[in-house]
Amino acid sequence: MSAGRYRFTRPFASGVRIIQFAQLFWSVAGSGTIVFNKDERILKPNQIALYLPGMLHKWYTRSKSWDFYWMALDGPLAAVILSSFGLNAGIYEAGPCPIGLFRKLIGTRLNPGRRGEIQASMTAFQIIFRAVLRGNRRRDPMTTMAVEQIHEYWPRHDFNIKSLAGNLQADRSTLSRRFHKALGIAPSDYLSHLRIQHALLLLHNSNLPATEIMARCGYKDVCYFSRLIKRATGQSPRQFRAD
What we know:
47% helix
């Protein structure tokens, strides 16, 4: 939907309103107060804060100055995409802000066509992945390596959890248990969500044939791909694209 960078000096307070989009803040320097309903929480550097659609939007500076990047995600899939990676409304440890990715996302406003929409969507995904990955880096090295490999190899149809475990020289059940403990989601579901969300973005924002989108997202079976899309959206790929 949009993205930017804010640098405020105290005192500054946002307007108070109910938002119909998701918004992510990634704090760089200083600190601010994020209000979740009536709960006030402090957002510090290397942390992200997340609002979901339908929430009261209210925040204000806490330190002398506050520097953060932000992005807003619109559309019916915004909350689904975030929740599929274990992110709900709240504040999370995320590591240093990926300023280069945010600048790239902000730059996509110069290309407002379909190509720009796809590029913006993919960049936003990378930011979300970076937040999830860095936030869990200290918890489990195996999970960190697994997530990195999933992000690298997910488009390949021959890549699955069995091959992932082989690459890591890990027992598959041990990998699944540690991955779920760190991220709250099974590695197979993580891989599936990643592929499906990219497929939905391409179906919605491109004219590529569904068979090509299927192939780009690591699938070989048309019927299986159609079932996954229908399970995620309640519609066939053609119906989802028509809407």
